[in-house]
Amino acid sequence: MESPRTRNRSGLVSRARQLPETSLRTAFDALSPPRIVWGPPEGALVVAGGAAATIEAREGNRFREVASATEALFDSGDVHAGTEAARPRVFGGFSFNNGDGKYRESDGGSPWDGYPDARFLLPRVQVTITDRGAWLTVTDAGENARVEDVERRLDAEFDRLTGATSTGTRSSPPGIAERRRTTTREEWSSSIRSALDRIERNELTKVVFAQALEIDLEGQLDPASTLDRLGEAYPDCYRFCFETPDGEAAFFGATPERLVSLRGRTVETGALAGTIGRGETPAEDEWLAEQLRTDPKNAHEHELVVEAIREQLSPFSASVATGDRRIKRLATVQHLWTPITAELTDDRGVLELVEALHPTPAVGGVPPERALETIGETEPFDRGWYAAPVGWVDAAGNGEFAVALRSALSTGSRATLFAGVGVVGDSDPDEEWDEAQLKFQPVLNVLDDGDEREET
Ligand SMILES: C=C(O[C@@H]1C=C(C(=O)O)C=C[C@H]1O)C(=O)O
Questions:
Q1: Tens digits of per-residue pLDDT, 359-392?
Q2: What is the pLDDT of residue 451?
Q3: In terms of CB atoms within 10 Å, which end of the chain has fewer, N or C?
Q4: Which family is it part of (predicted)?
Q5: Ligand 1 neighbourhood includes 333 CB (under 6 angstroms)
């Protein structure tokens, strides 16, 4: 007999308990696909497995569809989280474009087949690792969700995770057997030259062009080791990994770019655009940073992003505050970065802001529609989830999204990497080529220990 006390309108039941110390690798290995890793530079690391509910949207207004499905899912959910970090959240992402699909591999499939225009999961099992301890959350949703079952599963998952015998040893990088470019140097230069012509004719102000690099790996990619390595080299970045429902593919990376975070009515975002390499010495690093700070081309490229973000946020906010422009120094590159904050005038969900901001001219261009058209006509591959929003939403509509850069889509023994650059009036095709190669490095370095930094 069904007890009415164990049911609620949305059928969401979530229970949490504290876990002894654990790690990304132990949790990742113990959980079942589809697994998700979300590791922001500050705050809790989440490793999740399985789906208590899946929200997918294709074409149409995917941001609104996901927002209303998320709201319905959380509506009067029965949640005993124990601590805020352990509360259930949906995690997922969007594709860069709505309704992609022009790129086909020789077998007729697209590498992005497993990644629809939007997919968010409410994880069945969520491990949250914070500075103050780890938590296990077990969730079920739907007509058959029962408190008793969720509590029983919470104990069973606790036993499984605490009994997990992960050796903690990291597998070595898979190694790179072969690489194939989707864009030759000649094609790249001619695309940039034709974009420069359009800029000259005032049809465009900025466009971001990307390249893809297909890698055959020598061994299988181990996502947990790969993400551990990315975390060590890029502590100031957002690490993410989203497996397909069958666990056959994973989209992962370590991106420096936050699209937006919303907590209550406080919005935090920023402009990240303008790039230069790292030096061999602190003095050379500083010299390069100074070049970046004073270079008019990079300043222009950057300012276009600041302006667009301010403009997109202004209808929602009484005031938008722009901080000082500064340098974000990462292991392989340095960027210009301007923090931007705003206070909303009304209660809104984070997905409304994602919809308003994506794609910023850091990954699309100015004017946006013409830039997107130019990207579509020029790039010979689908961006899929590359350069698109990935993140989470909670029951209150709060959330945080990053722009999925410095990323790759992997299917066991193959990985496709993506990297893009902003083209403005005085861009030089050779310099832009070199900049794209630098942006492949974060992922290349974790695929192969011996990978050369200067590969062209
Ligand atoms: C498009 C990428 O990066 C973006 C473009 C940048 C630029 O053109 O300077 C800098 C940071 C990102 O906003 C990428 O990493 O693929």
A1: 999 999 999 999 999 999 999 999 999 999 999 9
A2: 57
A3: N
A4: Belongs to the isochorismate synthase family.
A5: no
Statement to judge: residues 183 and 156 lie in one domain:
no
At position 350, the amino acid (one-letter code) is V
Residue 322 lies in a domain: yes
The reply to whether ligand 1 has any atom less than 6 angstroms from the CB of 305 is: no
Measure the CA–CA gap between 395 and 346, rounded to whole angstroms: 17
Same domain for 188 and 291: yes
Ligand 1 binding pocket includes 335 (Cβ within 6 Å): yes
φ/ψ of 186, rounded to 5, equals: -65, -45
- The answer to whether the CB of 447 falls within 8 A of the CB of 440 is no
Q: Do 135 and 128 touch, CB atoms closer than 8 A?
A: yes
Same-domain check for residues 309 and 367: yes
Q: Which domain holds residue 429?
A: 176-222+244-250+257-447
Q: Which two tokens stand for residue 372?
A: 């997107």
CB-facing half-sphere around the CA of 313: CA atoms within 13 A: 30
Report yes or no for ipTM above 0.95. Answer: yes
Q: What are the angstrom distances between the C-alpha of 177 and each of 105, 211, 258, 321, 381? A: 20, 20, 33, 48, 22
So which residues are the catalytic ones?
206, 257
**Atom of ligand 1 lying closest to residue 418 CA:** 16
- Domain annotation covers residue 238: no
pLDDT of residue 72: 94
3-state secondary structure of 236: coil
Average pLDDT, the chain: 92
Residue 99 counted as domain residue: yes
The pLDDT of residue 10 is 60
Please, what is the end-to-end C-alpha distance for the chain in angstroms? 67
User: Residues 21, 136: one domain?
Assistant: yes
Probe target for ligand 1 pocket from 213, 237, 251, 272, with the most ligand atoms within 8 Å of CB: 272
Q: Are residues 295 and 156 in the same domain?
A: no
Mean per-residue pLDDT, 411-428: 95
- Does residue 97 share a domain with residue 61? yes
Residue 391 is predicted with a pLDDT of 98
Q: Who wins on pLDDT, 98 or 86?
A: 86
Do 186 and 94 share a structural domain? no
pLDDT given for residue 120 in this prediction: 98
- Looking at 365-428, list the stretches that DSSP marks H as alpha helix, in order from N- to C-terminal side: 368-378
Same domain, 96 and 194: no
Residue 184, domain CATH: 3.60.120.10
448: its two tokens: 């192969």
Q: Is the CB of 363 under 6 A from ligand 1?
A: yes
Q: Do 406 and 255 form a contact (C-beta atoms < 8 A)?
A: yes
Ligand 1 centroid – CA 255 distance (Å): 10
Tokens of 274: 């303008």
CA-atom Rg of the chain in angstroms: 22
Residue at token pair 């667009």: 308
In the chain, the number of structural domains is 2
